[in-house]
Amino acid sequence: MSEKVRVQTGDIDTVLNDVWRHVQERMRRGSEDINVLLDDGESALNDAIEKLEAGDLRAASDCAASAASCALLVALAMHRMAEDVPAKKEMN
């Protein structure tokens, strides 16, 4: 696979909205273990690659957004752990 990444104005907003939608769906379901997020992210990325190779680019994009949402939530969890922010405390 040797696809070039080309980004146009508006692409970032569109993709971030998709990622944020996946984040919100996961947050509505409740807290998840960081290991579950890592596993789900890896599975979603593998699914994205399979869909890309099959030529289903819309599904590949959605799977990649799902993987990115897992990565974002893992990064947020690690930030909270590094800063020792209690789970109940909201940051402003």
Structure description:
This protein has three helices and no strands. The chain is mainly α. Helix 2 (34-54) packs antiparallel against helix 3 (57-83). The relative contact order is 0.14. The model has no long low-confidence stretch (mean pLDDT 89).
Helix vs. strand class: mainly alpha
Per the principal axes of the C-alpha atoms, what is the gross shape? globular
Q: Describe the largest sheet.
A: none
Using the CA coordinates, give the radius of gyration. Answer: 15 Å
Could you estimate the helical fraction of the residues in percent? over 70%
- Contiguous helical run count: 3
Average residue pLDDT: 89
How many angstroms separate the termini? 42 Å
Order of helices and strands: HHH
Question: Nutshell version of this structure?
Answer:
By secondary structure, this protein is mainly alpha-helical.
